[in-house]
Write a structure and sequence with these properties.
Elements (H helix, E strand, L loop, with lengths): L10 H21 L6 H8 L3 H7 L3 H28 L3 H16 L7 H10 L4 H24 L7 H18 L3 H24 L1
Helix pairs in contact: 1-2, 1-4, 1-6, 2-3, 4-5, 4-7, 5-7, 7-8, 8-9
Amino acid sequence: MTETSQTPKSLKAQITRTSLVLAAAALLREQGPKAVTYRKVAQWAGAASSSVGYYFDSVTQLLHEAGRYNIQLWAERAEKVAATAEALPPEACRERVVELLIKACLPDATVTPSAHYAQLIAAAESSVVTEAYQKGRVSLDAAIDRILHCAGITNMPPRMVGTIVDGAAVAAISEGYDVIEFATQLLQEALCVYQQAAEAEDA
């Protein structure tokens, strides 16, 4: 992916370009890749339509940066939760591990779960967004692994945690359940299975 043909040099230009990325990221989260057009991004950013074409060679490039920004937000939130886990005594972390994992995996209160998962599914419409999310997922899984490690859970893969929570969230949304409660329940059950497996191996 090449950089833009017009690299912003002034502070004003950098602010304008950043505002366009933030607007594209918000559109991507709320309405999916198809909503990210020069005209709509400019409208959301409060900028002239021509400015989008000035700073970005194509919608594809804009989508790529928007996708990177969104997954970075998600990963950073998970990393903050991991830092909280690492600051806890091991026993306290084990007691709160489900709560911590849920916070790391699900969007915060500013984003509705249905919108969050709709935009993840819609990411398949754009290969550059999919690529950005794949790369960002590495950081997210690393944060989940830190939480599991602090809780003394060494036999459960981080990706399994994400898969369980995501699956539970989609099921809850489609069946009318509370997302956090349903995901918490399923994750707790899965952790018990892994814990029993670990105890059986040690016996």
